[in-house]
What we know:
mainly beta; Beta-galactosidase, Chain A, domain 5; eight-stranded antiparallel beta sheet; Immunoglobulin-like
Amino acid sequence: MKKIASFLALAALLSGGALAQKRTLLIRNPSAFDRNEVVVSVPWSQVAGGKKTDTASMVVVTAAGRQVPLQFERLGSAEVKNLLLLVSVKANASLPLTITSGKRQAEPVRTFARYVPERKDDFAWENDRIAFRMYGKALEGTNEDAQGIDVWAKRTPDLIINKWYRTGDYHADHGDGLDYYSVGMSLGAGDIAPFPNGKISYPKHYRHHEVLDNGPIRSTFRLSFDSWDVNGKPVTLTKTISIDAGSQLNRVEADFSFAGSQSLPVAVGIVQRKEAGAERSVQEIPGIIAYREPAHGADGNLAIGIIARQRIVKTLDAENQMLVVMEAKPGKPVVYYQGAAWNKAGKIKSFSDWTTYLKNFKTQLDQPLQVTLK
């Protein structure tokens, strides 16, 4: 009886839990430049084929047997929605991979996001390149109040949010970076807000937060804002933001809800500095806006960028900011990318480096890595 029971248990594992058979993935880079550390997404329905699969024993390996960093993306659900892989593929080349069963090796966690109640309701997020935060309700009305997206300049692949908040000593560089970016009452480093009658209509700070996925190679979260009056019309806003390992940019999906069928003008902005020495580039087509701040003393330079993913109505300078104006429609989120790079991190040292990075990133969006699953 024991032998029969053991056999039945093994059969159940093989048919229901473990990976039934090896699968082959071919990832092709159609562009003329290398794709280094890019997260690709494969629908879980295609991977699992409708069968129950033991994610704990799944590995993805190269032809040489090297394991590829992976993540099971759930998007706030109990069920897996996508298999995420962190890959590098040479220009005009292909990367063959195998999905199989095995013991998964430990990989570093390279993205992280969390609510920070101990620092006036901040919400902070980061990857192995850069860090950001947005401000919460507890900051409203204080002498520290600010509005848009903040940037933390870091020069370590380590995750530093918890360390910096724990010590409270992050306005001086002790070797891993610092927070010196000034947001004030602006959109900061690429935030979004309605722009009726040529004026930014800021909401109050976010009221609700939800972490949908939290690493190791992608973190996604949602921030919700209470309704506020925009030119006589109540508007609510929900932002879904994701950051990938190896990226300088976040994907932002801003969903504006309001009555009526007419569109609402919205602006994505970058605050500009009064000091001399800034560099900037505005390309309405293909939708890339770049700004490099003047040097902040010994702290170096931060470069900020925006990549629009829909038609730009116009670009302009207003309220001491570079603004990209687009149209929001009910039920159709505005999607764009925003982010930053610090020259002292050593990867993107000049404005030319930054504009090239943004151009290549835009090409990656337009010509994504092609995934074939067999």
